Amino acid sequence: MKDQKNKIKVGFTTGDMNGIGPEILLNSLKNTELLSLCTPVIYGPIKNLNYTLSHLGFDLTFNRISSAEKLQNGKINVVDNFKNLPQISFGSLSKEIGAAAFESIRSGVKDLKDGKIDVLVTPPINKEAIHSKEFRFMGHTDYINSEINGSSTMMMVSNDLRVALLTEHIPISNVTDSITPDYVENKVYALNETLMRDFQIERPKIAILSIDPHAGDGGVIAANDKKLIVPAIKKLYDLGILAYGPFSADSFFGSDEHKKYDLIIASYHDQGLIPFKTLSFGMGVNYTSGLDKIRTSPDHGTAYSIAGKGVASRDSFLCSIYLAIDIYRRRKIYDEFSKNKLEISK
After folding, report:
1. How confident is the model at residue 1 (pLDDT cuts 50, 70, 90)?
2. Domain extents in the chain
3. CA distance linking residue 8 with residue 39, whole number of Å
4. Which pTM does this prediction carry?
5. Spatial distance between the Cα atoms of 157 and 191, rounded to a whole number of angstroms
6. How far apart are CA 198 and CA 326, in angstroms?
7. Fold identical between 1-151+289-346 and 160-282?
């Protein structure tokens, strides 16, 4: 029997409760195998969670607590300190629901930072609903990056396919102004460390996609890749990091070139997310790499059009939970090995 005290404490936010977030969360927690691996801690109003349970006909029991320090193994713990309970209206955009989503995120991230939970898994939010004077961020990743030590990079993960972004939620017109050779070098260096520490890849091979079509066609189209990407790749290679490119993005995935690399780095959001979701939609995970704490989320949004109908797939959310647990375990092994190696070398 698994040692209850050593179970990984997995924190969950509620996401936008008018979307499919609570449904995929609660549906995932019906999985008895999952509950044997971890102790769940949800940050949310229990009254709203019970409403969703009743609406969907799910049979779960919650253990209401005031702090994650009071969690009980073998139970679905809910940290509920919510004073303002929003009304759920599935499929509707609501600023009150957005405010509750932020309160859930804020509580979960604080406990993650303080070590009261081991990892955090976040259902999707609606950026318009959550945006406020208190939450001026472009999404989960930016907020978590502001609270947790490290420098985050959005990495999409599905089995052996990993796609990271040089630039994330910014207009396409700002991409080239946001990239410098030093910026590329630092990003790739950090991602190389992530692949070794979080994915146990001893000697990662990294492909970088070009900024311009056809990598600029030798300067005929533009010289951005020659000026911004190529110098960084040369410097990284000299440091012993296996970084290659820049590769023209239009045929990179269709020709299966991506299968030759442990990570593909896209220059901007849609360049990476479109092929990733085409190849893995429904089973992908958004992993916030580069931080000293672990956070994952599913690869989809709030899906208002199907919210409350009981038809949302939990697959991507389950993958997010399992990946968070796997990375937590791998980090412990890697850090222990690195510590022992350092002590031996002294």
Report:
1. very low
2. 1-151+289-346, 160-282
3. 6
4. 0.93
5. 13
6. 8
7. yes
